[in-house]
């Protein structure tokens, strides 16, 4: 059960975002889901700049690596270098299974690395797992504005 | 003995004598005349430039384009052998013959060592035409050989590049193809789950076909990726005990073996110098096929090896359905299948991977079989010339 959480999905593929939303519909997730399509937008959203001045501060970021403009690793590095953003847990959610991507993500402070499953059933159960773990099991950092 | 006597084929008749551009390094005008006379007598139409110091030599080298340099060993202000360095510095390949008065054996050998093509004593100038001819011939042959080597190196280079391009292409294509395909697979599956029975029978069937097609293509792409990876990743080569590798493969195939009642009989398996993962894959694909294409009886698969000259010859023999000889080569080609997917599942990648692995080590793979009487897959793995110990530090 989760209420009042805010999730940010950073992914340039609208079909993937939609799939994640569909998957979360089948879970108990009750919070908001925001999404942005590139690394620059992601940092603007997180910094509440420009069009995103009223954006919620997310409790969790689901971050793809292969993104236009600034890629996922750059977004991750910027978040972990920022005193305001570094506490927000980041789940890397990517099709890449390359060792170097996984290693680099953890080096930059990713909270976990999850490979995007290829088929629907696995995709749905992976999203359910992420939802249950991050919004059900773990204690998230206090929100304190 | 005159030049004509030694070379009767070259009769002196004006106009038929070959042209020769010579550059003489000589301070004694008379000696130079003698040298030229020796060459002109029966053998060459010589156009010569005579110099005696470095500056003039460089100038003549570039202006006269000599085919041969004839250099006196001792000059007042310069050494004839220095001319060789000048020629090299200019990036030229012109034979130099030392033409000298008394020259000790030691000095003569030293000249040759430094790169002179030959040496001729001034009181033995009758030899000179033949020496020049030989020098020109050697240079010509050397040039041909160099050109051939260069051509070969270029071809090898092109081949390596085109191979690398192809593998890069396969890798990128399969990676980039996976992304959109993942969407097709996911959404057709979502459609089929969410709308099954809500449209009509045809719709369910169509969505089912689309969904199955997408899933199958995902597997194909993964196979292609695995195939292209065989050449890409330089695995660590170790001294591998094939008995251990086979043991691993038994574990991987445990379920299939149990289900089919398969028996594997290894004998005389050696250690080879190879990558563990690839050797395991090789055995696994061959044994997996032997189980998959079994006949009515439980599979009996013998795996053995024997040493033949510079390689090991492996045999993986089964009592399965066999293969008609006309397909014996096809089966090693990527995505070639002999049976309907409904009869025997699979994408036709296994043997292509086997072939790629074996060929990576410089070996060969082939099959000997008749329909109904089992198949024997044979492959060779070369025994490296260098000792394993020497490479172990890598």
Secondary structure elements and pairings:
The complex is a heterodimer of chains A (145) and B (394).
Chain A: E1 6-10, H1 14-25, E2 32-36, H2 39-46, E3 60-63, H3 72-81, E4 90-94, H4 99-107, E5 112-115, H5 120-137
Parallel strand pairs in A: 1-2, 1-3, 3-4, 4-5
Helix pairs in contact in A: 1-5, 2-3
Chain B: H1 3-6, E1 19-25, H2 29-42, E2 45-51, H3 54-64, E3 68-71, H4 82-89, E4 96-100, H5 105-114, E5 118-121, H6 128-195, H7 201-232, E6 237-241, H8 242-252, H9 254-260, E7 263-267, E8 271-275, H10 276-292, E9 300-308, E10 311-317, H11 350-360, E11 365-369, E12 375-382, H12 388-391
Parallel strand pairs in B: 1-2, 1-3, 3-4, 4-5, 7-9
Antiparallel strand pairs in B: 6-8, 9-10, 10-12, 11-12
Helix pairs in contact in B: 3-4, 6-7, 7-11, 8-10, 10-11
Commentary on this structure:
- The complex is a heterodimer of chains A (145) and B (394).
- By secondary structure, chain A is α/β, with parallel strands linked by helices.
- Chain A has a single domain, classed as Response regulator (Rossmann fold), CATH 3.40.50.2300.
- Helices cover 39% and strands 16% of the residues of chain A.
- Chain A is built from five helices and five strands, in the order βαβαβαβαβα.
- In chain A, strands 2-1-3-4-5 form a five-stranded parallel sheet.
- In chain A, α4 (99-107) links the parallel β4 and β5.
- In chain A, α1 (14-25) crosses α5.
- Chain A starts with 5 loop residues before the first strand and ends in an 8-residue tail after the last helix.
- The model of chain A has no long low-confidence stretch (mean pLDDT 90).
- Chain B is α/β, with parallel strands linked by helices.
- Chain B has three domains: 3-145, Rossmann fold, CATH 3.40.50.2300; 164-232; 237-391, Heat Shock Protein 90, CATH 3.30.565.10.
- Helices cover 50% and strands 18% of the residues of chain B.
- Chain B contains twelve helices and twelve strands.
- Chain B has helices at residues 3-6, 29-42, 54-64, 82-89, 105-114, 128-195, 201-232, 242-252, 254-260, 276-292, 350-360, 388-391, and strands at 19-25, 45-51, 68-71, 96-100, 118-121, 237-241, 263-267, 271-275, 300-308, 311-317, 365-369, 375-382.
- In chain B, the strands form three sheets. In chain B, strands 2-1-3-4-5 form a five-stranded parallel sheet, sandwiched between helices.
- In chain B, α6 packs antiparallel against α7 (201-232) and α7 runs parallel beside α11 (350-360).
- Chain B starts with a helix and ends with a helix.
- Residues 1-12 and 389-394 of chain B have low confidence and may be disordered.
- Classes of the chains: A alpha/beta (145), B alpha/beta (394).
- Chain A binds chain B through residues 13, 15-16, 19, 22, 95, 116, 118-121, 123, and chain B through 178-179, 182-183, 185-187, 189-190, 193, 215, 218.
